[in-house]
Structures are given as structure tokens and as C-alpha cells.
């Protein structure tokens, strides 16, 4: 089971916690057609995006602006209430390097 609105709220709290002098963080919500939530991070050397959809899928990317290379480009990861945080942690471990 994937409780989309629960994880949308969780991402909003996570966005607030990640905001610092090192990261510009924004949270965008889309409620048209397929509902989704995007957490976007701009850092000195990276651009990162984590997107969650009400159908239980997640996409995320991390781009290194100094090397112009993708560090992660993951799509259509199936998530549920039991593994959502783990998938986010995988994203964050690449984004914060």
C-alpha cells in the first residue's frame, strides 16, 4: 500500500529540514491528472530532483554540474509505505556527496 498524501507531507517536512546555506530546496505539488510531488535541490555543484506520484512510482535524478555527468537517473521505482524512506535515502546519499 502507498499512502500518497502521507508521503507528500513527509517530503514537505524533509524539504524544510534540508534547507540550509548549502542547498536551495523547493517543493512542488501537482494535483492535475496524476498527482505528484517534486522535491528539487540546487547545490553548488549539483542539481537533484525526487518525484513521487500517487500511483506508487518514484523518479529521481542527480546531475553533477562540474563534470556535466548524471550521477543518478532512476525512473519508475515502485514504492510503498514500507520502502519509501529507503528509496529517498538512496537518492539523498547520491545528492549530498
Structure description:
There is one protein chain. This protein has 97 residues and is of the alpha+beta class. The protein has one domain. Helix content is 28%, strand content 43%. The chain has two helices and five strands, in the order αβββββα. Strand 1 and strand 2 form a beta hairpin. The relative contact order is 0.18.
- pLDDT below 50 for ≥5 consecutive residues: which ranges? none
- Termini, distance in Å? 31 Å
Largest sheet: 5 strands, antiparallel
- String of helices and strands: HEEEEEH
Mean pLDDT value:
95
Count of individual helical segments: 2
How many domains in all? Answer: 1
CA radius of gyration is 13 Å
Total number of β-strand segments?
5
Structural class call reads: alpha+beta
Percent of residues in beta strands? 35-45%
Helical fraction equals 25-40%
The gross shape turns out to be globular
Assembly state of the chains shown: single chain
Question: Order of strands in the sheet with the most strands?
Answer: 1-2-3-4-5
Features:
97 residues; alpha+beta; 5-stranded antiparallel β-sheet; 2 helices; 28% helix
